[in-house]
Amino acid sequence: MMMGDPEDTYYFKKTCIPCCAKESGRSVSETEAEVLSRPIAHKKARHQQMVDAKALNKEKYETMDGMSRTQIRVLDKEAMVQLFSPLAKHILRKMKALEQCKLDGEEHDRLTKLLRGCKDIASEHEILMKLEALEVDNRYIAFAAEPDQHTFILAASFSDVWTEIFNPDGSLLGRTASWYICGAKTGWDDTLQIAAPCLRLTPSKDWRRKLDDPLTTGKQKYYCKCYAAYNHSWGQVVELSRWNRTRGVMERTYLRSDVPSWDTEDIRAAELEERLMPSTARELFEKTKRLVPTATDVVIEAPDKSMKLVDNQTWQAMPHFTWKEVFNMTELK
User: How many Cβ atoms sit within 10 Å of the Cβ of residue 269?
Assistant: First the structure.
């Protein structure tokens, strides 16, 4: 989709449980159980994502060295844990909240069974109120006291920096950063003489937006400098920076990642809440750190002064990292 293309259109059809049962060829009781389980399904899925992440307990990460594409660097688990250590406390808080999501799902299942056996309106109403309370409480930890909690988390998501670790003298020791990458085939491969991915790495605040207000929810869309609309499937590129004391240089390593889930964004927002203490979501947006990628032989400057990956082969060769792996980064005291 390109900037200026007409919007997609949607329509919604509402129907009743007996009609749903007829359409699906199932019994009314089976259909009712499935329909009642939908509102809590997201909580169960979020807890399962954490469980799946714990199974990804990698011993090492073989990644491309940001200073030389011909060299492979091995990042061990300890190095990854150290880089994510500023988030560790909040990751643990999030894990407890997701465990509660599991319990909410179990309680929801129990109540739906009671609901199906209800014989009077008063009891049915009481159970429905309890079900709704379980469905509405989303178990997010950042800015929990704020009525516009999700607007704060949205504001935090504009930060290109996840963590920074400093030496006692204030110099940077390590950093975790990420950028959304444009994979639209608006570029050109001179060697193959075919269309190639754009590969721009744009700071979050620099993306063109359909709506001027960055904190607008709903029908917001983001466009690259090449005018292509961002596609969720393109994901991100994560940059891990570590100061090499022996060589006296900042070594950069790159990973190809998915888009952070809202639960992962919640962890970062919780850290920013504690450190920045913003009074409004707008203030938090202004305080989030905009970071332009540093030129290396993996990241280069395009003719329009934007930063991009050197070529599609480099992007495809990057080892994969999934943001749910942050749940494994809690081992440092």
Answer: 27
